[in-house]
């Protein structure tokens, strides 16, 4: 990628896409092409084809997707399967036909089997049953990986697939109906503090272990690999360490300043018992994260406070 390469970031208003745009600008890439979903609905093949014909991007970061937590995945399985299949199929195919130099597809750690050996290596893909609550989303993402591999094999299309762990940071979705655990905890502790509640109830047992990576670290890794990595092998992107949901909740409560009690609703599903990515391949490719979980949560809470009018809630 040169400084003046024409780069399309799909999903630039989202957590990941906005971080990729910030990272590209920080590195001096100025020729960025972006469209909101209102301007270009990536589920519409005719609109996507017309966009690629007209804009002719040279590089594509595919960070547009229908994304959500356990609750949203479980409630809207058809939306998660259909929208993600449509978005990625339209974009990958149009990019190849328009002669795009290279495309980066973003999957997710939920593509790995529910009981994959931990930490999860890239070769755990398709070795066992998925976590049922988000299998719709995971199946779509697996199809995206396979599409990148198939287009590379059949057409020589330079598409890479990267699998981020759980992400968080400025611009996250704080909507309690469909957000991920970390932004949901920030919002719930903040509102409980304002109301003076004596306790906050958290879904599940608090024992599942999860890994969290700041979106700015993710963006650093994604741009690094877009510049240096060419293979059909997927690459995990994580920080290499995990915490229990209870530990996370205690960290967030401390940063937000909620002093009440945490209680756990064990009638609600826990999801996968542990999700930690093996980051050996990523480390060997010369990248490691910079932002600690505590620094990252602190910064995200500061952002949440400063952007009350524009948060997705
Ligand atoms: N967040 C995480 O923890 C996480 C973890 C692993 C992987 N990922 C992956 O990272 C990617 C981005 O996730 P995110 O967290 O940034 O999600 P997000 O904050 O919800 O952003 C998703 C973006 O996709 C766009 N989009 C959705 N439907 C669209 C459509 N029909 N047409 C055009 N654009 C559409 C939205 O555009 P508008 O804003 O314009 O509507 C939005 O900007 C996804 O592939 C996801 O699987 C995320």
Any overview of this molecule?
There is one protein chain. The chain has 313 residues and is α/β, with parallel strands linked by helices. Helices cover 42% and strands 15% of the residues. It has ten helices and 13 strands. The strands form four sheets. Strands 2-1-3-4-5-10 form a six-stranded parallel β-sheet, sandwiched between helices. Helix 1 (15-26) links the parallel strand 1 and strand 2 (32-33). The longest helix is centred in the N-terminal third of the chain and has 21 residues, at 77-97. The protein is globular, with a radius of gyration of 19 Å. 47% of the residues are buried. The mean pLDDT is 95. The structure holds NADP nicotinamide-adenine-dinucleotide phosphate. The site of NADP nicotinamide-adenine-dinucleotide phosphate has 26 residues, from helix 1, helix 4 and strand 6.
């Amino acid at each position: 990628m040169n400084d003046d390469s024409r780069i399309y970031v799909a999903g630039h208003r989202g957590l990941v896409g906005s971080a990729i745009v910030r990272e590209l600008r920080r590195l001096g890439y100025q020729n960025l092409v972006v469209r909101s979903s209102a301007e270009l609905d990536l589920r519409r093949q005719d609109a996507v084809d017309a966009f690629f014909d007209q804009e002719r991007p040279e590089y594509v970061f595919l960070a547009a997707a229908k994304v959500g937590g356990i609750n949203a995945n479980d409630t809207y399985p058809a939306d998660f399967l259909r929208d993600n299949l449509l978005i990625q199929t339209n974009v990958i195919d149009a990019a190849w036909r328009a002669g795009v130099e290279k495309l980066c597809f973003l999957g997710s750690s939920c593509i790995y089997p529910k009981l994959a050996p931990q930490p999860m290596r890239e070769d755990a893909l398709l070795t066992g049953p998925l976590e049922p609550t988000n299998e719709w989303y995971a199946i779509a993402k697996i199809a995206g990986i396979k599409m990148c591999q198939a287009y590379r094999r059949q057409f020589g299309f330079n598409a890479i697939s990267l699998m981020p762990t759980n992400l968080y940071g400025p611009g996250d979705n704080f909507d309690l109906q469909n957000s991920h655990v970390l932004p949901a905890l920030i919002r719930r502790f903040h509102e409980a503090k304002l109301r003076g509640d004596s306790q906050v109830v958290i879904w599940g047992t608090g024992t599942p272990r999860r890994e969290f990576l700041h979106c700015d670290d993710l963006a650093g890794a994604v741009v690094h690999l877009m510049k240096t990595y060419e293979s059909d092998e997927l690459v995990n992107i994580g920080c290499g360490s995990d915490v229990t949901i209870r530990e996370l909740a205690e960290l967030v409560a401390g940063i937000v300043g909620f002093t009440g009690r945490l209680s756990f609703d064990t009638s609600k599903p826990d999801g996968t018992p542990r999700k930690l990515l093996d980051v050996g391949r990523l480390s060997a490719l010369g990248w490691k994260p910079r932002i600690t979980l505590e620094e990252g949560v602190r910064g995200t809470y500061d952002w949440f406070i400063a952007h009350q009018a524009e948060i997705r809630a």
